[in-house]
Specification:
The chain folds into two domains: 140 residues, Rossmann fold; 62 residues, no CATH class. Helices cover 35% and strands 24% of the residues. Strand 6, helix 6 and strand 7 form a beta-alpha-beta unit. The chain is built from nine helices and nine strands.
């Protein structure tokens, strides 16, 4: 499997005039093309910082980060799906979907055609002229993901995209997003505080320590590859994997 994301002995330290704060320590992992890797760990441990390194927003203090074989700042191949959908209330849903294309000055007509096809494919045909306020929370998140997909990124970075939803809606949207990422053949890194969500969606889960953040364990969930989130939760191995991840998170000696 071709690696689309590579971290090799990555360290990050924030410097001020008064002090140095180590954030990441010797982070080494890779994400293969079409793979979905989860990041779980304590609040503030550095999960979102890892996404920022993948996107090229920040650079490591030492070590190497590559996306598509190049430093992230030299290739624009990542797209974000955030905790809040960030849809602009004064723009129609289609207007929101086309916003990134407008900023990047992409061909508007081709982007619109792609957006229409994605809306139809994912049961959102007919919402183009409506506004975000007219959609449910789950539909808004699907529109937000389509806004990212029309830009044709190779990597999707999901930063707790379901945390603002109620429990029942989250279960539905986790399944929707999983299906969309799988059908589009996307490579994704998924930050979450919810171990259940990580096991439901991912091929592997990296369990992170508190700061300075390191990878305590990479948990393999490939036995669930191709199985939808709702069906994974019914497997006896689901609880075993949950316990493995939770125990690793709670064990400070690893």
């Amino acid at each position: 499997m071709e690696d689309l994301i590579t971290f090799d002995k990555v360290c990050l330290t924030y410097h001020t005039k008064e002090s140095e704060t180590p954030v990441l320590s010797d982070i080494t992992f890779s994400v293969g093309k079409g793979e979905l890797v989860g990041l779980v760990g304590p609040s503030g441990c550095g999960k979102t910082t890892i996404l920022s390194l993948i996107s090229g927003i920040i650079k490591p203090t030492s070590g190497v980060v590559l996306t598509g074989g190049l430093p992230p700042e030299k290739c624009d191949i990542s797209g974000y799906m955030l905790q809040k959908d960030e849809l602009l209330p004064w723009r129609t849903n289609m207007g929101n979907i086309l916003l990134g294309a407008e900023i990047k000055k992409l061909d508007r007509q081709k982007t619109r055609e792609k957006a229409q096809a994605l809306l139809k494919k994912y049961d959102l045909a007919g919402v183009e002229k409506h506004y975000p306020s007219q959609l449910s929370g789950g539909m808004r998140q699907r529109v937000a993901l389509i806004r990212t997909l029309v830009l044709a990124p190779q990597i999707i970075l999901l930063d707790e995209p379901f945390s603002a939803l109620d429990f029942q809606t989250r279960l539905q949207v986790v399944g929707d997003v999983y299906n969309m990422l799988r059908e589009e053949g996307m490579t994704a890194v998924f930050v979450t505080h919810d171990i259940n969500e990580a096991i439901s969606m991912c091929n592997r889960v990296a369990v992170l320590s508190s700061k300075p953040c390191r990878i305590k364990k990479m948990v393999d969930i490939s036995e669930f590859n191709g199985i939808p989130p709702s069906e994974r939760r019914l497997k006896s191995r689901f609880l075993e994997l949950y316990d493995e991840i939770l125990t690793t998170m709670q064990n400070d000696t690893e």
